[in-house]
Structure formats: structure tokens, C-alpha cells
Amino acid sequence: MKEKEIMVLADKYIMHTYKRFPVVIVKGLAQKVWDVNGKEYLDFVAGIAVCNLGHSHPKVIAAVKKQLEKLTHISNLYYIEPQAQLAHLLVENSFADKVFFCNSGAEANEAAIKLARKYAHENWGGDKFELITMKDSFHGRTMATITATGQEKFQFGFTPLLEGFTYVPFNDLQALEAAISEKTCGIMVEPIQGEGGVNIPDAQYLSSVREICDRHGILLIVDEVQTGIGRTGKLFAYEHSGIKPDIMTLAKALGNGFPVGAMMATDKIAQAFTPGNHASTFGGNPLAMAAAKATLKTILQEGVLENCQKVGDYFLSQLKKLQQKHKIINEVRGKGLMLAAVLSIEAGDIVNKCLQKGLLINSTGGKTLRFVPPLIIKNQDVDHAINILEEAMEGK
Q1: For 117-140, what is each residue's pLDDT tens digit?
Q2: How many Å apart are CA 206 and CA 195, to the nearest integer?
Q3: Under a CB-based contact definition with an 8 Å cutoff, are residues 290 and 83 in contact?
Q4: How is domain 103-282 classified at the architecture level of CATH?
Q5: Which residue among 141, 142, 169, 284 is the one 20 to 30 A from 317 at the CA level?
Q6: Is the dihedral of CA 229, 231, 234, 240 positive or negative?
Q7: Residues marked as catalytic
């Protein structure tokens, strides 16, 4: 089909829950994608921090093809070989002892909220059920996760929200401590706020949150849906702080584009879930497990984390140089290959100009450019992106 025909068909039959760019992407390879007209783009969105190994990675493709020929779905009523193998791999490389598999970040966070409440109910009684989350956070689009999300724009029109959530400013330990009450069962936090604008807390913030949880005897839930699977230069962002959460959520990059989520916990917390407490028809299906297992092994074994750290540092330095040339850039921040440039103007025009010039980026919060490219990019890809950004900012 031609580009215009596809757009007309989509606009007619698909609900308008997205404000889409006028481009139809039909092919991807590594850090590049192509539209239906054959135009090439350097992809620094990566499916919104999803394709950490880039598009069409051969090992992920091979794993899915092999599994597709054996078994696509069977149900969690039975044991599933690649599911057990992936769970072992995740546990061996994290703080956790047990894993629950689902299909998305929202589902993973929903499961975490349920597990925290179930654990609290069994151990502390029914009056201890509240969670503290952060302003400008983002935890998903289900009713529980938009309630957990500390941004009113995602909650508008969906009231009444779920009871039992309190919000405090991100990176404000005093406000966090003051919000804890006899009803608090846990704190839910992103190591770096992604949708909130790539907000990075003080170096000791997460370890201090852990200490607060320990002192009050409450749970620490770390939402690593966007930061996990190597995005910050370590497999999980909590590792930068030297702490261990009680519960962690993953999705996005776990399957390198294949829909898969995971909620992980220590044995002590996980035992609160018993048969019948929580479930997912498609969670942990063989195809998703095969994709995620190949993704995780590749990231752990092929120097991807080291490349992320090295190229991320270079990208950050080049963005800072760009800041010196263009007064519209107020701030540059980031960790690994999760970076942002905060502008003094609305970012939409820059995003659109970059699209026209063959670079995919996106914006959050109106004035923040976000860069979450595949972790396999090289310095020359950064140079290419910086050149396009500089052209897009001319005259601003």
C-alpha cells in the first residue's frame, strides 16, 4: 500500500489514542529504519527505549523462529521450558529470587502493586495498604498505574482513582519521610524518571530511600521498565546505588521489541502470592521467553553494557558542546544512553525538523528532547545525530 492509503486506513479504523507522525515505518535494521517510500532514518527513539539491541537483531530473530516452529502458546497451567530458563537468568543477575511474567510495563507495575498490598495484608494487616510514589513519575496506563503515576494529565477524565496513593516530589527525601504514615506499606520509585523528562536524582537518593524503607519497615518497589536491561550502562539502574529493592518491574527492552514484562521480588515478599492471587494468559508465553532470553544473553555476553557506558559518555559530552552553541538548550542530562536536552522553547518543532532530516527523536513534558537510541550505536552515529540536531536548531 502507498503511504497515504495506510494513513487514511489507520485514521479511519484505529482509535485516536496516539498523535502519530506522518510517516509509515516498514523496516528496521540495527540503528536504522526505513519508511514505506524507502527513506532512511537514524533511530534514536528505539521504540521508546525498547530495541536496546537495535532492530531485527539476528540472535533474537533466530531464537523466535526456532521457538515458533516448536510451540507458540500452551498456558501457564503447564511448565514452559524457556520461561524457566529466562527466570533463572534474571534471578542469577539480580537481587531477586522469584519472577512473575506478564506482557507490558503497566502489567508488571500492576502486579507489583498487588504483591505489595498482599504482602502487607498478610504481615501487617488490612490497614497498611498505601503506596508513596513521586510527582512527575510514570508507571503505566491501567487504573492502578495511572493512579500511581504522579502526573495529573494522565489521570484527567478517569476519576475516581484507586484509593491508597500519596505523591511527593522526586529527589526530596524530607518530603518522602514526612509522607510516611501508619498506613504506608511501600515506596514506588523510578531510578531515573523517563516520561517525566529524564530526571536524575542525587547520587545518594536511592540508597537513602532504601534506608528510609528499612527504618520504617516498608517495601521498596523500583520501576525499571525504562531503565532496565542496560539502558543506563548497567543491567539494572539500581546497581548504580549499591542497594537491593524488595520488588522490581521490567518490560520495554526485555524482549527487544517482543511484548514481555516481568515483576521480580525476594522470596520473603514473593511468598505472599499463592495460586489464584494473580495470573496472565499470555504472560511468559514461549515466544516472548525465547526473545527475552536471547536479548538478555546478548546484552550480558557481547559488551553491550560497556558500549552503552562509553558511547553514552561521548553523546553527553557532544550534547554539552551543542549547548554551548545554542542558547535554547538550558540543560543537558542523562546516564548511559538515556539522555535529554531541556529547551527554553517547545520541543515539537525540533523533533519535526529532525524527522524531516532523517533522525528520529521524541520529546517529553513539552520542552525536553529525549534520546534513547539502541545500545549498539557508535560514536559516528552520535556525530550524525548531533549534526542533524544542529541543523534543526539553526536560527532558534
Answers
A1: 999 999 999 899 999 999 999 999
A2: 19
A3: no
A4: 3-Layer(aba) Sandwich (3.40)
A5: 169
A6: negative
A7: 138, 223, 252
